[in-house]
Amino acid sequence: MKHESYDVVIIGSGPAGMGAAFELSEKAPQKKMVILDKLKYSSGGMRNDCKMNFTYPIGFPNEYWDESQAEEYLDKVSEFLKPTILPKTRIGIYQTRAERLDTKLLEIKQTHLGTDGGLQLIKQLQKELQNRDVELALEEEMLSLDPKLRQIETNKRVISYQTILISPGRQGFRFLQQTLDTLDVSYIDNIVDIGIRVETRIEHYPIVKDYYDPKFHFPDKVRTFCTNSGNAHVVKETYKTAAGLPYNSVNGHAYSVSHGKENGLVNFAMLNTVGLTEPLASGQQFAENLGIQAMLMGGGKPLMQRVGDFRMGSRSKLESFNADLYDFQPSLRGCCPGDISLAMPSRILRSLWKGMKKLDTIVPGILHPSTIMYYPEIKLYANKPTYLNKHFKVADGVYLAGDGAGTSRGITAAWASGIRAAEGMFTEL
Q1: pLDDT at residue 189 is higher than 90
Q2: CB 381 within 8 A of CB 308
Q3: By CB neighbour count within 10 A (0-12 exposed, 13-18 middle, 19+ buried), where does 53 fall?
Q4: Are 150 and 401 in contact (CB under 8 A)?
Q5: Domains of the chain, residue spans
């Protein structure tokens, strides 16, 4: 196996890895740098919908960021990406309604490139990195790390480094934990988001015409997340448990306005943040078990249920998806009509449903009988390692960043955490 040396190695080509690479190539252009990604394409949140938020606290865990820090780094991200902020109208009406129900509608600066626009942005960023002599090694996976020798082994070679950033994103949750075990770094993963993906016609959720991705925070740690409208689609993602068993989670995305072919639908997540304590302190294990339970109930597919059936205490069947009140077809066809209440813990379901009822008062129409609830939507990004400094250092020469490491929740915050890690890495070059 061949052996090569680099000054900087970055694991993961998502926004955290990109942010670090651009920062380091600016500060130390003479240093040799490589970005590894196990997939055959550059991954990360920019590939899926590419919705970005530029206002604290969205995306910034308060364990690691205060408002002044976040705004400082958001300015750097904004200066580099130069986003076009989407306009908002009539926000005060919705905010007043929300406040009456002990709910908050956050006013966030946002931009939306869509899945097609995100892919174009990735191509532009890759070209710029190549112009800066940063190597991008796709389909190359880190298999092991030796912190004493400052070496990693991949599926293609052995690489020596001076400093390394590990930023695998949400899907690298398990990989990151294995790496932390190798480094003998303690961590906890006791927080997880469990919820549903809601899909309906835009006329039943007209707020999206005034505010593209409205951020509602309800009591009981329930919130809306990742709203998509226009040419919007629900998609299935497949993960594996620690034992190698597959389970599904749903997600959503939309194409840009320029892409055309709008389907008139909107989808968004309703998530309940669950914090676990002893004796069950692993959010990952808890979420994996819920994913397996949903697979069992859905015959290997995610579950979907019309609101009209749910309110009647009935499971949805194929005939629930007809042309009467149920006046649109699901954008995610490969789902099993069923009863999500049999697969979801009742406490979580009660909290989500309370939030849905409040939302229907704020934006009347969301609980139309035709609205679909897809289950499960699971977010695994709550690793909380023991960091040695503010730059997310965990060992000599080793830094973490991004959603998988718990330093961020979203594209812009991940990019910001990559910059912050790069500042620390620079001191070791």
Answers
A1: no
A2: no
A3: buried
A4: no
A5: 3-85+113-187+383-426, 191-379
- Give the position of tokens 């080509």: 13
**Cα(321)–Cα(309) distance, integer angstroms:** 11
Q: Which two tokens stand for residue 108?
A: 């966030």
Give yes or no for a contact between 161 and 7, defined as CB atoms under 8 angstroms apart: yes
What does the block give as tokens for 315? 């499971």
Q: Which CATH superfamily is domain 3-85+113-187+383-426 in?
A: FAD/NAD(P)-binding domain (3.50.50.60)
**pTM for the model:** 0.91
Give 87's DSSP letter: P
Other CB atoms closer than 10 Å to residue 300's CB: what's the count?
A: 12
How far apart are alpha carbons 107 and 57 in whole angstroms?
11
Beta bridge partners of 228: 267
Residue 329 near residue 364 (C-beta atoms within 8 A): no
Q: What's the N-to-C CA distance of the chain in angstroms? A: 26
Find where tokens 């590894």 sit. Answer: 36
**CA 408 – CA 172 distance, rounded (Å):** 14
Peptide bond connecting 376 to the previous residue in cis, omega within 30 degrees of 0: yes
Contact criterion met (CB below 8 Å) for 56 and 64: no
Half-sphere exposure of 385 (CA within 13 A, CB side): 31
Mind listing the pLDDT tens digit for each residue in 126-167?
999 999 999 999 999 999 999 999 999 999 999 999 999 999
Q: For the chain, what is the radius of gyration of the CA atoms? A: 22
